[in-house]
Amino acid sequence: MAGDDVVCAVDVGTSAIRAALVTAGGQRLLEARRERSPDEGTETFDAEHLWDGLRQVLRRLSVDAPHARLRCLAIAGHVGQVLVDERSRPLGMAGGWADSRGVREVADEWPDPATALRVAGRPAVTGGAVPLLHWMREREPTLHERTRWVLAPKDFLVLRLTGEAATDVTSAAYTLGSDVTRRAWDPALLALGGKGPRHFPPQHAATDVVGAVTPAAAGMTGLPPGLPVAAGGPDGTVGAAAVVGCAAGTVVDVAGTTDVLTRVITSPDERPAAAVLNPYLVPDLWTCGGATGMTGGALAHWTRLLSLGDPADALRKLEPTLRDIPPGSEGLSMSPLLTGSRFPGWNPDERGKLWGLDEHHSPVHVLHAVQEAASYVVRQAVDTLIDDDAPDTPVVLTGGPSRSPALAQLRADVLGRPIHVSTEADATLHGAALLALVAEGLESSLSAAQAHMTPRVHVYTPRTSIATRYDQLYEQWLRAKD
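Below the sequence we write its predicted structure tokens.
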């Protein structure tokens, strides 16, 4: 490995922190991983634990590859908010993607909600830094007063690595305080949280270099001091970029604890009303879509609840039995939305339900029902993003379900559309590598980097009779769930 020019890609997910050394040609040389606690990253988490996890993962890589010529680092991370003081110390518990603190109050107190939501590019108040600040001002006024910077989780890690406060335009949109079309902080939106633009870091393109690893951070991580660090971006958007680059139109489904549905668009006017509008990772493009409620997270929850052990191991062992269960799980169905619905329903009060349970149902029926329900949730989102007159528009699937032919086929049957499964199951990690390569100048642009390293796809087409049956079951599920 000596002499290789490599970049470091980091994926900070709710279930694990992963890092990899990747060559300019896209070859992944080494990878390290550290699991996170099941209760971290969804609603609240300890930001210091996140930093400790990143340090451990990076040190493992540095021990295994001491002679690689490391050129740049980029982080893709889950959505959330970390408040820090003047010394970069976290204040209170950080908020994860499902953090709803302050949501009701902000929704009730905005003087002109319609205008505010239009500027923020949101169909509803969905959480973010502004609601959290509003909540903290009322309940933790001392911490609110001490807040110096309001950061996304990956921005907090960049701050610890470089000493610089910075964010990217896509992460900024999730604060509920940024004008998404101008890609700039909006003082009127921020005011409801009791803070102004000076408490929020400068916004950058995801491929901008925003700092360099400090000597202190180098000592804690094993990274070389002075290593350039890119702004990075949200995990779902970065994962989508790994699959489609800057190509507009195709829907990408990055599946994990939730499914993040993304469609690149050329104008904000193309956004469906129920979808989130975000600036894309590069100028002059946007995305519409959003994260669903729990999908893969619900499957993991039920696996643990039924004492079936590790979810991935349990599914591998039970897959032959799962294949024998017919559509509809013999009358058993459920809603997997344990922490509320997001895109496209936007109901934070919705909770999971199980119905039709009979004495003949086994734990395998329950797992099959949650797999079907997760696919129904994704179908709701896809149908929102794709016009009815475009039934053959492909959906590109990456993430956990893409590793299972049975789950990929189920998605095709439930959605009634071709599913293009990317061979790059770790799309977010792959996307972070693309950002680092562009930031360091090893690739000229995001689209060029993605074109040089486009993953192959395997196409799953709907099976006609089964897809027809799932059309009926989906309509029944919608009525029962609501």
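Residues 5-231 form a domain with the Nucleotidyltransferase; domain 5 fold (CATH 3.30.420.40).
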